[in-house]
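User:
Care to share a sequence and structure tokens?

Assistant:
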Amino acid sequence: MMLRTRLLQKIILLSFITVISAGIPLHVSARGGTHHTVTLGIEVLENRGFNILKGKNVGLVTNPSGVDHYFRSTIDILYEAPEVNLVALFGPEHGVRGDVYAGGKVDDAVDAKTGLPVHSLYGATRKPTREMLEGIDIMVYDIQDVGARSYTFISTLGLVMEACAEAGIEVVVLDRPNPLGGRKIEGPYVEPGFFSFVSQYRIPYIYGLTVGELAMLINEEGLNRGQTGKQQPAKCRLTVVPMQGWKRKMLYQDTGLPWVLPSPNIPYMTSPVHYCISGICGELYGFLQIGIGYTLPFQVFGATWMDAEKLKEKLDSYNLPGVAFRTIYFKPFSGSCANKLVKGVQYNITDYDSANITEIQFYVMQAVAEIHPDKKAFETANGIGLFDKVCGSDHIRKTLSTSYKVSDIEDYWRKDVEHFRELSSRYYLYR
């Protein structure tokens, strides 16, 4: 009897292991661990023997997300390659080694590991100066993007391209996946008067391109005018080293690649999606807590004064496609709500393709206005100017503040999507 029991236990255990293995497909590489589906631009470049960098003095714009699938830093890969003469590093927001927190000033420094000079592009200077570029023949860019217009790394890219165009320096972009995939496009173009470091280009909020494809688009279409407002922006000599194996339908979790957070509040490979769902609303300081300072950055909407049950009930009544809500109660570790009970909702994307992810936060603003009319977003919050900048105009704020009805802004928010889809498709490197 005992023998039969043990045999049955082994069968159940083996069945359990089989189910787990079937649910999480593993691809074992020759070096062990999980085999990557996608080969990154830096890996393609290395496989080609760094051919386009040979005999040239190389500058590199990167941060901790610039790694291969074994977590080797692009800094170290290029510095240690005998064929490459890496001479300078350039640090965007958070710095080349990720040691500067969100919004903090990045200073010029010397990289402790390589001894190379590090020039700051997130401080007093955001566009490389002639002095910074002196002695550089070719500039390499390798940073993991999140796919949203307001994320500042693509703004840094544009200013680097502009400076290099003016100095006659070639730019090489080592391509990486768009974590949002290559099919989702949401939001309107930036309007004149609202271009900024968080809305550098006339593109939708979610633009559905890899950083290499975006670089080609802004370079060829003259969109790289950013803060300068130039009508004839400089066009650089641009080379994109494409990935191998990436498809437009892929989210980051489909790539088989490890995730290295590109900034402190984007810790998970799903965080770029969350960033787009609540990040615009999060610019309204003092309105809602969106999980920053807690374990769920960008994944919740709450406040100390919120009626969580009513908020969930109201959001459920909208029947929004592809998203579900649950009530949540938590105490943030830091921020204005530190150690205070925050009440609200956590969302879950149930169907990514059908969800209009950027519009969810506007529906939350509508719901709050309906259940807490004394706590309406624009009457409660600070940071109105930054909200307008990330939206690309003041139309969203002005329209919502009169009605708090998403139906009043829906057409405007969606008006440029199909035009951009047709325009951007000319620059697709992947299908």
